[in-house]
Amino acid sequence: MPKKQPLAVLVWKGGQCVPGNSWDRQGLAGLKEGDLLEVYAYKPPTNKQGRFAHWLFCLAAENAPEGTSWTAEGVKVACKLHCGLVDGMLVRKGQAPQWNFMSLTDLDEDQMRDFIDKSVRYIEQHIAPGIDIEALKAEAKAKSAKRR
User: For the chain, how many helices (H) and strands (E)?
Assistant: First the structure.
């Protein structure tokens, strides 16, 4: 489920909610006395999860069978389609329709974990059948631990 567009992002610091940056302070400045706010606790995906997913897609493309032409971006797109991370299609006059994919940053930490798990199973079944999936995950984990 995609997040709603927030009025402002608040961060829990020192036992209270504070605006995350100046844009958030400006968003809150327009509130009137008595306006009601709804607050949703949200844990964004971690950088570690993002790096792991990136390397997972790269390594899956590298280990795809001979004769296939998978790229890391192609693997990511296939996994997003498989997991339903699509907002719809973009249809422009005179052009082929294009999928409008959700960003992985729209997922929370748990949703990202679920996406990675489903992607691993999809890669094992459809992109690189017969691959040692534990070795693939271990290599992706090792590569994602190294920051450039």
Answer: 5, 4
pTM above 0.90, yes or no: no
CA angle 148, 145, 10 (to 5 degrees): 90
Q: How far is CA 126 from CA 22, 138, 144, in A?
A: 46, 20, 23
DSSP conformational letter for 124: I
Please, which residues have CB within 8 angstroms of residue 67's CB and are 6 or more apart in sequence?
none
Token pair for residue 100?
């409008």
CA distance 115 to 110: 9
Distances (CA, A) of 122 to 26, 46, 76, 115, 140: 44, 22, 11, 10, 16
pLDDT in tens, 74-98: 999 999 999 999 988 888 899 998 8
Of 131, 119, 114, 122, which is closest to residue 62 (Cα–Cα)? 131
